[in-house]
Fold each of these.
Amino acid sequence: MIKPEYRERLLAHIGRYVQLPAEEAEYFVSLVSHRSTTAREILLRQCDIANESYFVLEGCIRAYTLDNKADEHVMHLATNDWWITDMYSLITRKPGNYTIECLEASEVLVMPREKQWDIYDKYPRMERYFRVLMENAYVSTLQRIHDNLSLSAEERYLNFERKFPGLVHRIPNKHIASYIGVTPEFFSKMKKRMLKNS
Amino acid sequence: MIKPEYRERLLAHIGRYVQLPAEEAEYFVSLVSHRSTTAREILLRQCDIANESYFVLEGCIRAYTLDNKADEHVMHLATNDWWITDMYSLITRKPGNYTIECLEASEVLVMPREKQWDIYDKYPRMERYFRVLMENAYVSTLQRIHDNLSLSAEERYLNFERKFPGLVHRIPNKHIASYIGVTPEFFSKMKKRMLKNS
DNA sequence: CGTCTATTTGAATGTACTCAAAAGCGGTGG
DNA sequence: CCACCGCTTTTGAGTACATTCAAATAGACG
């Protein structure tokens, strides 16, 4: 049984995107299970097929890829009330490129892929929920491309702080450097420079 | 009345993502209208609210933004059988940041936003079509972020040629430079270098 | 307390940019 | 059909932002 507080968190998230009759909402919540993780725990490995999505309640989780020089790139950071998964692998049923790792001990709700797909037929309004989620994820990813092209590293970092307040003090900074697209060394020098000029 | 060939093109596109009864497919096609455009014609201006999506049949259309230094960034290039719109503006009903411009005289099918939203209630399977489109758009946008972070400009250009075969000979190269994230000057030098080394 | 990882620092390097100017190209009108 | 005009592409020189590599320092965790 899922803690009522966590139930409410997920229901509130859904409610922000779509209106649901109580029956459907109950059914949706009945499909997820709760899971506690430790720091550094891996939820999905590169080359595995993603079978689940995770709704983050507490903690922080990253999804990263390796490029052909074996360098890591942090593609997603998820904290309170965000979904995280390897969408490519989830929709294609092929081995993915993402490793999903907990950066802190975390609490998540787990949605099995198969149940998610079943619900689309049973309750079409839930398909709308995920459509709208996808639309928003798509738009914010486009914004990230635009920012990478048009903003300086300092500006991207300021954006990051607005989007993830306080996260810089919770997780290794090299992951933040990777997320905004710079090396850890440059990130370190940049932060120092920003402090001096403020 | 839409040319049967164009009708088929749209139906085939839908068919790649979702199975539809003939009735629903007919209804869907009845919602779009055909439009011929000239080169340099603007379909949507920055700061206007997007009311339509465009399915490109012939020609080439770009969507670009301006950053705070008034530099253009080509966010989308659409050719045969791609949808293009300002998704942010379309879903939020707020003025957008994209200008959508035809780079060649083009043939498009126009889907009014309002009719698209209506159809979600009438035929839930169409909501699935757009959900799946969004999932794919999202995944390929993530891939673009990854490529921008991990590939050299040359590799990004080779990817571009694979994704848009022959387009380099059809449109001003400065747009391609912008799409892959380099200046026109650098793009020119890079192409020269690649020719020499091959 | 010791070990492992993360961060900082510095020097040298490189990739891509800016600015300016010349050359090329294409469309339009005379 | 040619000549012109405007836009695009090319070229070159100088520059900047960010990287790489190496090493020292700091911090976290068992």
Amino acid sequence: MEETAPRKGTVTQRAIERITAMIREGELEPGERLPTERELAARLGISRSSMREAIRALTALGVVEARHGSGIYVTRLEAGDLLETFGVVADLSRGPRLVELLEVRRVLESTATALAAARITPERLAEVGKHLAAMNATDDPEEILAHDLAFHREIAAAAGNATMAAILEGLSSRTFRARVWRGYQEEGAFARTRREHAAIHRALAARDPEAARAAAATHVDAVEEWLRGRLRD
Amino acid sequence: MEETAPRKGTVTQRAIERITAMIREGELEPGERLPTERELAARLGISRSSMREAIRALTALGVVEARHGSGIYVTRLEAGDLLETFGVVADLSRGPRLVELLEVRRVLESTATALAAARITPERLAEVGKHLAAMNATDDPEEILAHDLAFHREIAAAAGNATMAAILEGLSSRTFRARVWRGYQEEGAFARTRREHAAIHRALAARDPEAARAAAATHVDAVEEWLRGRLRD
DNA sequence: CGGCCCTTAGTGGTCGGACCACTCTCGTCG
DNA sequence: CGACGAGAGTGGTCCGACCACTAAGGGCCG
């Protein structure tokens, strides 16, 4: 009698669990190449189609990466790889949930900025300063936005917590900024944003974590409050 | 000449984007049923196999849910649905990244606990108290862990930010607690944990947000420090 | 007449096989 | 010795068949 049969769920679901288990147990290392689809399918006793679905699911989760003609590879499994999906949340969120996301961002961003104030290197601080200057030197919203994102990204990186940085990155996803940021800036918040960015930069330069935390919190809170007000319509 | 062809990426990838776009643009509402696989495939001009892979990917992301024999449905798109994948991150993280995750948890958990102190209802506070008592009334690690999780889950729910609660939930995933919590408690941290939980409960009962924040931060920090020390080996 | 059961159409789940597109290696040729 | 080209191997796509399950409808029985 065959000893194989865990009969719960779809075969694809089982395949997903088997592969993640192999990775979790260290049987597969980050960056390592998996067996071929055909072999994996045979090994688990399922069809190639079902195995492909399993692999597609893991690809979507950022656990695995398929390279056409070459093979399937485990990603580096770093925060950035796995948390890319976080952007999907922001993309599909509307209404009150956008406020919740901003609340999370406020908490994490202010913490990251405080950490950065304590740890940032002069080189990176200069980089932050560059984005600040570039932001103030143009009127093109697209360019401003690009430097705005880079400004915060640089700070998050300086905080030294890649996981936190990856989450914050997800909270600035394309749709999110299109839906929130654009509306916010259209109401003439440029000047305010500039002041707040300057305050953050000042706190970083002064290596003052608490000032940095407060400045970042205020910065996000401004958007948060604007959005709250807008949702009341 | 056909006007269809965006020739970038795999057809499956395009299908994923098309479907998420339909949801994002409100063409598909949360909970609504999608067309059948066969029809979706025909509509996008791809094979059913490829469409199934797209749907499987979206299922993994918690965007969509397939019910055998019935159809494919958009999930409610609430934080819990979309952030279930967050557990995968915790599951596959090792070494230094576990510390980063705890750092994120400390930040969010302390904030959530502070919010809860201001907002918690008497009923829910009683519930929290129950889990605290249950935790202290047994020596079975499994039972303790279950009430420990419920304790924090109840608090997170009381904070009123479902997104935050969902992230915290992911940070307590099965593997995570097996890998970290177990080792921590084995070193006789029970007494300490009890004291910290009691302090959190006291702060909640006193409706003192700042005390609650500090107590929660201390609580997580204890685990964090233990793990840091352990990683030095 | 009302309620239960069974049929049945329709859905997602699985399978196998065929072929295409791409990558990488290795042996050949200049 | 180097460029390059053929071939084997890989993921990507498609097709068509069948299975497992759901839900709704119609007919039977009480």
